[in-house]
Amino acid sequence: MTTTRDYYDILGVSRTASEDEIKKAYKDLAKRHHPDMAVPSEKKAAEEKFKEINEAFQVLSNGEKRRLYDQVGHSAFQQNASGGNPYGGRAGQWGPFSYSGSGAGGGFDSGDFEDPFDIFESVFGFRGFREKARKGRSLRFSFTIEFLQAARGLEQEITVSGKKLKIRIPAGVRDGTELRFAGEGEAGPAGVPSGDLYLTIHIRSHRIFSRVGDDTYSPREISYARAVLGDVIEVPVLSPENNEGQTLIKLRIPPGTQPGTDFRLRGHGFPRLHQPGRGDGYIRIFIKIPKKISKAEKELLERLKDLG
Is this model's pTM higher than 0.70 or not? Predict the structure, then answer.
């Protein structure tokens, strides 16, 4: 199932709603429309409504999916959408916790949306109103890291709900990735295991680098003379191996380089999450035009202008 109704309308929130407002709206609607609350003749309709509410919540409660939805709408989550999956969602195991990527593509039936009863259980601690809780309530928090920390990975001890946890964030993690810590949520009733803890990773922007997939992009200004004559310059690239997370390498600028030229540096982008290799780095050249020049510089430019 992939609804065509606007997700914000489904939850009854504005397009600028905060995470807390989205979660509150979900909790109110999910309890009201849970199939266990419907009479037998309306159970099927309630199940469809329940799925619709959970689908909207899964997209709008995830930073990266929400931004993608705001940009292109439902087509981002429809199976075989044009252009495929721009975010390359993945899932797997890393150290003591599992992770799930937040890529687009595929509808509810394709497995990209989680079971609505699993989502309900992670929020409320039980799957239905006619059964006892199977575990304590799961907790969801956000954790923000720096751009270069995402490139080299991070190990850190944090405190969540009074608990100290050592977390390991893998190199190449993407904004919106969710980490799951089994059994680190709220304690359940007697004889029932604790819920789980979910951390959604957010990544701060960088003053030089920007990221598209596993590739990085950065601008570099050079003088008019260097563009015309050619030169060798130093440019910053990611370096997950060192503590700084970046380093300088030499780049040859050929004579006659035009403004807006992109130079591709293979293997100098982000590490591919739990896969060998790295993305590429791209350097875009801009020509620096001085606002003030000396008399001698002006005379040289006048002569060049006369030469055509």
Answer: no
